[in-house]
Amino acid sequence: MLSRTADNLYWLARYMERADFLARAIQASRRLAALPKAYGGEETEWESVLLSSGAALAFDASGRPVDEANVIEFLTFAPENPGSIRNCLEQARANARAVRTALTIEMWESINDAYLEMRALESRGVIPCAQELARFLEVIKQTSLTYDGGAYRTMLRNDAYWFSRVGLFIERADNTARLLDVKYHVLLPEKEIVGGSLDYFQWSAILRAVSAHTAYHWVYRTSMKPWLVADLLILRPEMPRSLISCYESIVRNLDNLARAHGRQGSSQRHARGVYGKLEKMNMESVFQGGLHEFVQSFITENNRLAALISEQYLF
Amino acid sequence: MDSRITQFDELAGADGRTRAPYRKLSQWLAETPPELLASRREQAELLFRRIGITFAVYGAQEATERLIPFDILPRILSRSEWTTLEKGLIQRVTALNAFLADIYGAGEILRAGIVPADLVYRNPAYCPDMAGRRVPFDIYVHIAGVDIVRTDDQGFFVLEDNARTPSGVSYMLENREVMMRLFPELFALHRVAPIENYPDELLATLRSVAPPRANGDPTIVLMTPGQYNSAFYEHSFLADKLGVELVEGRDLFVRDDVVYMRTTEGPRRVDVIYRRIDDDFLDPLCFRPDSALGVAGLMGAYQSGNVTLANAVGAGAADDKAMYTYMPDIIKFYLDEAPLLQNVPTFRCREQEALAYVLDHLDELVVKEVNGSGGYGMLVGPHATKAQIEEFRAKLKAQPQNFIAQPTLALSTCPIAMASGVAPRHVDLRPFVLQGANGARVVPGGLTRVAMTEKSLVVNSSQGGGTKDTWVIDDAWVADEPMGQA
Amino acid sequence: MRIRIRHETTYRYAEPPRTAVQHLRLTPRNHDGQHVVDWRIDVDRDCRLVQSEDAFGNTLHRFSVDGPLESISTVVEGEVTTFDVAGVVSGAVERFPPILFMRDTPLTTPNMAICDFARETTSKESGTLSKLHALLGAIHESLTFDAAATHSGTTAAECFEHRKGVCQDFSHLFIACARAISAPARYVSGYFLGSDGEDQVAGHAWAEAYVEDLGWVAFDPTHGVAPQENHVRVAVALDYLGAAPIRGSHSGGGGETLDVKVRVARAAAFSQSQSQSQ
Fold it and tell me: Cβ neighbours of residue C193 under 8 Å, at least 6 residues apart?
């Protein structure tokens, strides 16, 4: 396969995943921000969304005050925010357009439909009302599902599929890790004693952002405990957005590539290394070393993998 | 202007009696409620938008991606009409190819004085780098698009030959797919010759001209200028149908006169390039040095015979509008046959007498720039303002050799379905002719282009023209009542 | 006259490219006015130097190399004997009829100003040859040599507007004017033996125009003369691009700088022995 095609597919998957994560994070934060203060409706909620989506610097540069309307607009439609949903979608479509031949019609249609929807919304020229916005976020989530499903159901299992999967899981691991990084303070074990149930709604917002609210209960069958929330997002292999689950998928897809090309490389070795470490870990050891430090180092390792892949496959 | 009185409608015919090929369609139209047509039109629009068939228009910032209007009523030719056309097309493309092999080789037609040498050598599309070099199997024009018009039910006229990188075939194929989804009942009523084998035929053509060292299993790629090119959709569509990589210049490189593409598994040798990029941009070391779209060293690999380019470099020297006027002589010279398809009578403005006539009759004629394309640089006399006519008069006087002129043809019309009902519009036809070491062939049909505005004669998609599906149906099914419909 | 030439071209890169491809038109061929005694070409990289003939019959060398490349240096060196043939070029490789050299190229298309200039300059002359000589004088008079005023992509029209340029621009303007008065004309790249014998920063360029019954005749508008024995002809084409000594392309890297050293000198010892033998 053309190196450029692999590059396009990889980034297409990353942008789609990022748009989906942003949509979910915005929805979860709105829910939290709408609560009375006594229930954890912190005023810093919008700052933390900016942080976890990596848009804080760009937002500061825009000079706008941090409030719900501004942040949502910035994360959703702002053309000046390179990481806005709008730009993710635009990038995804540009990548998709460049590799139309490597996509199935279902995948292309799902991206193109969402793009047209966004253009229609934009062409009306006014800032969309709350209802329209909510609908748009739904469309984005829906698109990501259709796209993902389309890929899963219709793509040939060859290098195009594997590159696209690797992109998706690297992005997903990055998103989960950054969410953890911003919220780590409410997930520390001692928090239960200090803050009591005040943080309850924070935990549930985190779970919602990664669509794991129901999953939590199925896995643990107990009321919300912060360390279990962290456990779910880091070490539970059955949770599809957990770091370990992402790495399990990355390793498998990179192995498929290596088998097809008859050649192992540094990206395969690195991914296996990260996965191996996660497998050996438990939550006690994570907390002992510091949750914050753990997440920081994970983000670095994950970025390193991305760099190795692009080196190995000549992007 | 009065030519319009005798306008030929392909459905109604000259005498107002529905012509045989359209009898079933006409009957179906009469029985079909307008709401149904309206809803099918909407469905068609939706289908095209979803599939993503868009067309980038030069200079239009707002709508850099726009749908080409599609009309849901088919344009119909009978098998016997098609057979005439097909023979004529193959004859024409065979002659075009022989002409190219000659002007880059022995130059017999120039020595015989049939075509003026300066017209060839001063033509910007004539490529000196190709002179004295053979191309694989002596084939220059692997894919040709010949623009055909008709003015009555007698014969066909060739309006223009396209021997460089003719586009539109994806619309031909997609139009058919959409029509089959929208109107299964119409297909059941007619027996429409299939065109879906075009990609296979194209692939076979490209394989047939691969360099011998590909050992019968050539790596073929389709080379595009990139996704901002107006025909990018077509490039990606065709690459997909052919099952070949869609490459840009930056995906290729040349090492010791061999072309490779960059893949995730390392460099891979390329044998045949179906290039949809103009000569000028192919190789910055031979042509435009500022081209970022091409591949440095590509011409060296080509001239060493290590890679085949389709169409050949310099093929544009044959499809020039000035050369067009010599096509009947060219056909006679190489094939010793009378041309089966007529040329539109054309004034060569480089000739004194012709120029004088043209200047006197600008309001009746269509004046075209010899090297213009896509309907740009063209004057349609009867529809032009005084100012436009004067502007062209000045241009003509300054550089008469750059222009030809033709009478405003009473192009035939076909019905189209609009919101306000069914009405006739002017059409032309671009069939696609393939030519390989395995012979020449045409899939039955082509792209019918239609001027969507009333009385307009400009069918180019860059100027707001639309398209239609084109059907070739068996003569038995054209007859008044086919024997037993059961 | 025997002329000795050494021409060294070095490309240096601040950021080394991954690969590079070059086309070299650096090898002179014989015609009635010159005889190549000895010539060699040398590239300081491991590569296969493929020799072929280009469209106009010039000798072309091509090569591609893998990086990382900090620099590529090409040296040509040799000796050519020249004869005074009063500027008439006969016995050269001709691949096309003269009419081909009526083609306009982006670098040589005459604009209105050039056409007017060409017409006015030649209106009093009769016969193509005297018209061309009038153009030669007029262009030499009206342009100022200025290496800073133009670059390799400067067109004849741009050069004429500023009335400044280098030999390439003088030649393009001459070609544009000649074609404007219906004389086929072409670009020549080569070497010029100056009177001072000092190192030069570039090769030389002039033009040839076709005169019925006489053939191709050389004109050097930079010096305002018809070449005699001091010019060594290397390549001809429609314009600079087709005859450029080196055309190259590299992928990756950047920060390219170019260094050219040309030495053209009389091969004294040989010319002496030649005169003794006469």
Answer: C1, C3, C229, C230, C231, C232, C264, C265, C266
Residue A267, SS3 per DSSP: helix
Q: What is the tens place of the pLDDT at every residue in B41-74?
A: 999 888 887 665 554 443 333 344 567 889 999 9
CB A141 within 8 A of CB A23: yes
Name residue A203's amino acid: W
Burial A79-110 (b: 16+ CB within 10 A, else e): eebebbbbbbbbbbbebbbbbbbbbeeebbbb
Mean pLDDT of A134-157: 90
Domain borders along chain B are 345-408
* Domain ranges (residues) in chain C: 2-277
Q: Are A131 and A182 in contact (CB under 8 A)?
A: no
Q: Is B264 close to A159, i.e. CB distance below 8 A?
A: yes
Compute, in degrees rounded to 10, the torsion defined by CA atoms B336, B338, B343, B349.
50
Give the best residue of A2, A267, A314, A315 to mutate against chain B (max B CB count within 10 A).
A2
For residue B271, give both structure tokens.
């044998």
Q: What is the CA radius of gyration of chain B?
A: 23
Three-class secondary structure of residue B374 per DSSP: coil
Residues of C in contact with B296 (CB under 8 A): 21, 248-249, 251
Res A257 pLDDT > 80: yes
Q: Compute the residue count for chain C.
A: 278
Specify the amino acid at residue B276: R
Q: What is the DSSP track for B451-471?
A: --STT-----GGGT-EEEEEE
**CB-based burial label for C234 (10 Å; 0-12, 13-18, 19+):** buried
User: For residue A227, what are its two tokens?
Assistant: 């360390």
CATH number of B345-408: 3.30.1490.270
What's the predicted TM-score (pTM) here? Answer: 0.85
B residues 239-258 closer than 8 Å to A (CB): 239-240, 245-248, 250-251
Question: Contacts of residue B48 in chain A, CB cutoff 8 Å?
Answer: none
**DSSP string spanning chain C?**
-EEEEEEEEEEEEEE--SEEEEEEEEE---BTTEEEEEEEEEESSS---EEEE-TTS-EEEEEEEES--SEEEEEEEEEEEE---TTEE-SS---S-GGGGG---TTT---HHHHHHHHHHHTT--SHHHHHHHHHHHHHHH-EE-TTT--TT--HHHHHHHTEE-HHHHHHHHHHHHHHTT--EEEEEEEE--SS---BSS-EEEEEEEETTTEEEEEBTTTTB---SSEEEEEEESSHHHH-SEEEEEES-EEEEEEEEEEEEE-HHHHHHHHHH-
Asked if B284 and B296 touch (Cβ cutoff 8 Å), the reply is yes
CA distance A132 to A241: 28
| Cβ atoms of B452 and B53 closer than 8 Å | no
- Contact at 8 Å (CB) between B257 and C62? yes
For C149-174, b/e burial (b = at least 16 CB within 10 A) is bbeeebbbbbbbeeebbbbbbbbbbb
Its ipTM equals: 0.91
Chains touching C, CB cut-off 8 Å, 3+ pairs: B
Tell me the pLDDT tens digit for each residue of A73-126. Answer: 899 988 889 889 999 999 999 999 888 778 888 888 889 889 888 888 887 766
Q: Is A59 helix (H, G, I), strand (E, B) or coil?
A: helix
CB atoms within 10 A of CB B282: 25
Q: What is the pLDDT of residues B182-199, one digit of tens each?
A: 999 999 989 899 999 999
Chains C, A in contact, 3 or more Cβ pairs below 8 Å: no
Domain boundary assignment for chain A: 1-154, 156-315
CA distance B344 to B350: 17
Q: Looking at the domain covering C2-277, what would its CATH class be? A: alpha beta
CB < 8 Å from A in window 40-69 of B: 49-52
